[in-house]
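In the laboratory, one determines a bound structure by crystallizing the protein with its ligand and collecting diffraction data. In a computational setting the workflow is compressed into a single prediction: the sequence and the ligand go in, and a structural description comes out. We illustrate the idea with 5-O-phosphono-beta-D-ribofuranosylamine.
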Amino acid sequence: MGDRLRIGVLASGGGTNLQTIMDNCAAGRLDAEVAVVISDVECGALERARTAGIPAHWLNRRCKQRFPTREAFDGAVLERLQEHEVGLVVLAGYLRMMTSELVDSYAGRMMNIHPALLPSFGGPGMWGHNVHQAVLDYGCKVSGCTIHFVSRDTDEGPIILQRAVPVEEDDTAETLAARILPYEHELYSEAIQLFAEGRLKIEGRRVRILPAASA
Ligand code: GRF
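The predicted complex, in structure-token form:
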């Protein structure tokens, strides 16, 4: 396998998805390396990157002098990604709405994870425990997680992988989130490895997973 895929991770939270990806890269389970981690807030994900010796950039979204507009902020994100020669952008709990310029710059090379079975329980405002509470309030019997390519509309890009997880009678948003998270970690690395092997083909709304041999 030639040069390893260089991943840029955008995150705004604790960073457990990032940690699993870094661990799998270090252990050779992924033909990739995390080249840079970028966040709009000081957060656990940046701490984890620093501990692993990976370049970590906090772009303070509250600094209106540096980032007077969303375009200015995303321009800085794009600069960092290009500076680190990122081939795949991985959103892992990144809570900022992105401009179409940033999304288009990585069309077909930017993935997101959502803690529900899209297209249900997705869209603006549907993040973290809000998602799991909505699943419970609706009375669903299964939930799960989804990895998809990012498009201009929140949580609407073509789906790469999904995993269904049962909802238990006495679930709360916290217990449901905790049951789904390990599947997220597993599924994200599976999707990244498929991308690294060149086995993902986007055909309109669908993502075809090509057999290993023909890649
Ligand atoms: C995950 O549940 C993910 O599905 C959602 O945000 C959470 C991030 O968790 N988009 P972590 O920061 O990776 O632990």
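The longest strand covers residues 32-39. Keep in mind that any predicted model is a hypothesis to be tested, not a measurement.
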